[in-house]
């Protein structure tokens, strides 16, 4: 109540002086302590929050234009901020597109005209085109600056007076070095120099930088050394993608390396917008757990790098060490370096222990020149040169961590790693038809025209490899599914549903994971060295008897083909192949077999482990079994196998699997508890009293129970996450 009203009230009611104080106190508002938190929050919100007027906010948005010296990315950030209060809803993308095109600076009029001519223009297309044209303009300025810089370096032998005189010419722009305009109309007159941090010019013509170059040239008397730097524009669709524009820049004596990680504000330039070839990304396994990491091969980067985000998520077991390295982007900006780590690196058949620089942020992973000097990269794929593999290529795995004697063992048994195999000797598979069934003949399926050439080449290869042979007619035929492989080729898989219904079962029990792990610690001895041997095209190595050929006839666009060997998709294939491999390897201690994976686990170090490998190699060579050298791992102290990590300490879950459980959302309907329990059940052996603890969640799966997420369900849900996230998730081999 205003004080004037209070005074009027006192006079009108003839209140004496003794009662004025009590009357005034009674007019005070309520004490804040008497209000609830919700009410106080509501009052504060009503007091401080003003509802924006949509028409006024939209007026600000539609009148916004790109300012002088403002980049496209900065302009877009400003537009998005203005649009946040305009209530555009589903129209947001179109509004941003329209204002971006309409509000471009006059210097980008050519870009604007081009965008206005596109009939189906999207926001993404407009943004990428603007960024690309802006980058092209900057590259042109940088080129002009480099020319000016070269002139300055050549003139180092001249007197300082002449250099200063040339730098003060009236017809030369002081902001960018151009001879076509003055600094008053230069687009870089408000730019900040990446060398001296002053406004008004760019780095190539920075006087402070040129003076330092002249001083170094006079003091050393030697030609200044150069290092390569590159401009890498990140691609959203690939972890390690970037675009390189290599140039020569003077090397700062305090900097060990320069490399590129160029970003344009909050948005990133896409590969398609520059009409360039996408960068070459390789899959590298890092650390003892062999975590897959996509890295871009960058010959312009002196050091290989990984982001702090990747380090925290996957490589935090390796301590960060200090490193005296300064990294700069193409534009001269420093990239914050956290330090370096030393990690095991595996690329295809090569294994090394190398240094890896950790940088701040979520930047692409780079495969730099330091790693290229140690690792042989498949350059044929880099340049897209398709080279046909030789008929009998031998791919022997190599690693610096292998014992010296093991290389002789590999050389002795090198034919195990031949890419051409004539099939397993001494064994044949067989398919038996149920009594009274009739043959089934199914027509072929169409193939996309883009895959026709690859499909036909694969059939030719299979015929040449003595796996298939053509026939003119057959009572049996199955259609084909073509599955793309990681190397770009195709795998021919028969759809044998009709055949599977008509052949007899062949039962041979596969060892489960618990049985295999229990066998690892025979006589109470804990293994400390592990290897896993992977078979090449496992089922296709086993010949069938002639009666079974006709059952595996496939119907293709090239006609009918019959298979001489066991195929993927046949319901008895796994059992038959497991029986054959068990017969080949039976009697060798410390060996566990599951279909096409042979697990070796020994104690006592390298020597006993090598003896077991020799025995296995001998048996496999005797029966002409071929191996996939790319997937074999030897002499590992820690091995990732079937979702588990094996080591001398015991068996633990794979970290990535546990992260999926830890990040699983709280179930909100009947279907979600089943998915969560499916993930957790795989590791139930790691949890004591698992069934009783998870009973409330199992109750939700009962059809008789209505959906109710109770307090008991919440406790079980959080308990499972906590216990699997703890460091105590470890079991011994012999339970």
How do the strands and helices of this protein lay out in sequence?
Layout: H1 3-12, H2 17-26, H3 37-48, H4 54-62, H5 72-83, H6 92-102, H7 109-116, H8 123-154, H9 160-167, H10 207-220, E1 226-229, E2 247-250, E3 281-286, E4 291-297, E5 305-307, H11 308-314, E6 327-328, E7 334-335, E8 337-347, E9 350-359, E10 366-367, H12 369-372, H13 379-382, H14 404-412, H15 452-464, E11 468-471, E12 480-484, E13 490-494, H16 497-500, H17 513-519, E14 529-534, H18 546-549, E15 554-556, E16 559-563, H19 573-585, E17 591-594, E18 597-602, H20 606-622, E19 633-636, E20 639-641, E21 644-647, E22 650-653, H21 655-662, H22 671-681, H23 690-693, H24 695-700, H25 711-725
Parallel strand pairs: 4-10, 5-9
Antiparallel strand pairs: 1-2, 3-4, 3-8, 6-7, 8-9, 11-16, 12-13, 14-18, 14-19, 15-16, 17-18, 20-21, 21-22
Region (Disordered): 217-247
Protein name: Reverse transcriptase domain-containing protein
InterPro entries: DNA/RNA_pol_sf, Peptidase_aspartic_dom_sf, Retrovirus_Pol_polyprotein, Rev_trsase/Diguanyl_cyclase, RT_dom
């Amino acid at each position: 109540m205003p004080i004037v009203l209070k005074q009027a009230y006192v006079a009108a009611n003839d209140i004496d002086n003794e009662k004025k104080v009590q009357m005034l106190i009674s007019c005070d508002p309520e004490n804040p302590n008497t209000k609830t938190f919700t009410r106080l929050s509501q009052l504060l919100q009503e007091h401080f929050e003003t509802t924006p007027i949509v028409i006024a906010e939209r007026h600000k948005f539609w009148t916004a234009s790109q300012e002088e010296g403002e980049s496209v990315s900065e302009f877009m950030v400003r537009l998005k901020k203005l649009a946040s209060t305009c209530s555009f809803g589903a129209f947001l993308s179109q509004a941003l597109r329209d204002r971006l095109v309409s509000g471009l600076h006059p210097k980008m009029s050519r870009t604007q005209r081009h965008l206005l001519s596109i009939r189906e223009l999207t926001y993404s297309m407009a943004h990428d085109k603007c960024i690309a044209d802006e980058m092209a303009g900057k590259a042109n300025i940088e080129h002009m600056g480099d020319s000016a810089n070269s002139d300055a370096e050549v003139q180092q032998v001249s007197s300082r007076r002449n250099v200063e005189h040339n730098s003060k010419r009236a017809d030369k722009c002081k902001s960018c070095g151009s001879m076509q305009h003055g600094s008053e109309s230069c687009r870089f007159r408000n730019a900040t120099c990446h060398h001296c941090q002053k406004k008004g010019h760019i780095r190539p013509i920075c006087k402070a930088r040129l003076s330092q170059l002249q001083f170094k040239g006079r003091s050393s008397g030697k030609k200044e050394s150069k290092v390569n730097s590159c401009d890498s524009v990140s691609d959203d669709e690939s972890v390690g993608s970037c675009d390189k524009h290599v140039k020569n820049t003077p090397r700062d004596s305090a900097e060990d390396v320069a490399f590129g990680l160029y970003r344009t504000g909050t948005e990133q330039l896409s590969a398609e917008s520059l009409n360039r070839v996408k960068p070459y990304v390789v899959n590298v396994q890092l650390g003892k757990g062999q975590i897959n990491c996509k890295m871009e091969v960058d010959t312009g980067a002196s050091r290989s790098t990984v982001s702090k985000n990747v380090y925290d998520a996957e490589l935090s077991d390796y301590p960060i060490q200090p490193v005296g390295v300064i990294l700069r982007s193409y534009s001269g900006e420093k990239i914050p370096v956290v330090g370096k780590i030393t990690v095991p690196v595996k690329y295809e058949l090569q294994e090394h222990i190398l240094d890896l620089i950790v940088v701040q942020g979520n930047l692409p992973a780079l495969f730099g020149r330091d790693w290229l000097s140690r690792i042989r990269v498949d350059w044929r794929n880099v340049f897209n040169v398709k080279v046909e593999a030789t008929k009998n290529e031998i791919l022997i795995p190599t690693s610096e961590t292998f014992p010296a004697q093991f290389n002789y063992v590999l050389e002795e048994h090198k034919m195990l790693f031949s890419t051409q195999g004539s099939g397993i000797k001494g064994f044949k598979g067989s398919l038996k038809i149920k009594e009274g069934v009739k043959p089934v003949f199914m027509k072929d399926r169409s193939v996309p025209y883009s895959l026709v050439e690859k499909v036909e080449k694969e059939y030719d290869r299979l015929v040449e490899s003595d796996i298939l042979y053509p026939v003119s007619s057959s009572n049996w035929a199955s259609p084909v599914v073509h599955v793309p492989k990681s190397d770009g080729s195709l795998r021919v898989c028969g759809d044998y549903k009709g055949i599977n219904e008509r052949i007899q079962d062949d039962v041979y029990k596969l060892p489960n994971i618990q049985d295999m792990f229990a066998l690892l610690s025979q006589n109470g001895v804990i293994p400390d060295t592990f290897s896993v041997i992977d078979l090449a095209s496992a089922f296709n190595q086993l010949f069938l008897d002639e009666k079974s050929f006709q059952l595996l006839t496939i119907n293709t666009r090239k006609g009918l083909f019959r298979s001489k060997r066991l195929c993927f998709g046949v319901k008895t294939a796994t059992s038959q192949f497991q029986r054959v491999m068990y017969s080949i390897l039976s009697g060798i201690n410390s060996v566990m077999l599951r279909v096409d994976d042979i697990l070796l686990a020994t104690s006592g170090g390298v020597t006993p482990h090598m003896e077991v490998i020799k025995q296995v190699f001998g048996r496999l060579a005797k029966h002409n079994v071929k191996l996939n050298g790319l997937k074999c791992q030897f002499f590992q102290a820690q091995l990732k196998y079937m979702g588990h990590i094996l080591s001398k300490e015991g068996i633990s879950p794979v970290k990535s699997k546990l992260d999926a459980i830890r990040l699983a959302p709280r179930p909100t309907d009947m279907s979600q508890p089943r998915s969560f329990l499916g993930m957790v059940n795989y590791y139930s052996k790691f949890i004591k009293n698992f069934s009783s603890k998870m009973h409330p969640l199992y109750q939700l799966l009962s059809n008789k129970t209505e959906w109710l997420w109770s307090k008991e369900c919440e406790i079980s849900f959080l308990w499972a996450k906590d216990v699997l996230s703890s460091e105590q998730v470890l079991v011994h081999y012999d339970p």
